[in-house]
Amino acid sequence: MLNVERSICHDAAATVRRASILPRQEQDMQTHVIISYDGTDNDHDALALGRILGDAGARVSLAYVRHSTESDAAAEQAAQAQAQELLDGGAQWLGHPEVQRHVILSASTGEGLWALAEREQADLVVFGSDWHTAPGHVQPGQSALRLMEGGPVSVAIAAAGLRDRAGAGLRSIALAGGEVDDAARETADRLAARAGTALALPSQEGLDLLVVGSRPGTAQGHVSVTAASEYVVETATASVLIVARGVIFDVEQSGREAAGAQAPERAHQ
Q1: Strands 32-36, 124-128: parallel, antiparallel or unpaired by DSSP?
Q2: Rounded to two decimals, what is the model's pTM?
Q3: What is the CB neighbour count within 10 angstroms for residue 133?
């Protein structure tokens, strides 16, 4: 089940109305995944990947970026209500109408999500692929590319058509080759261990997730990829997770953990 809280944020300066299901301290320990959602078909792929991560233990929230305000008060109220209704629909699609929602005001979707991720201390922002992407492939849109150019949080891009894959999960994990950041390697190892499988080859058919590391020289906790890695992303046939430099993405526990740290021991089931 998704771990959730309820909140509606009108913009970066808004007052948050929150009725939390989990204690604040416990929420802070959870991995926080923000799903970028605008109601398009490919953003339903982002919902599908976010739901998988939520089922694995992450705290999930939805975000929609408005690009301008209306000069007329009634029109502005209607536009805000429409944005909230859109996110309500996304929450219903997830099957968890209580998930936290953010309506952000920014001229740029990428910049708005960047600021939201920093404010919320998120661990990951999930995007759908660009609208023209063939099913089973990945193509980051402009907003994802913005966060891939120095963003303060790991970035995931859902493969097109993931929304239609019955029983989709994270059972087959691969690590992209090249000069790999230790954080990306440990992230891939942990995800594979959680699935009970060895790491797969990036070329393996039926791959569920390809983990990509940030380039050398990237600031700690930020994302940046080489041209070669960007090509790997754009030719992938599985959803892609680009890991922030030096910070392990653990789907169950947040904390911006540095590479080389020991994974938290999990209780035997």
Answers
A1: parallel
A2: 0.85
A3: 21
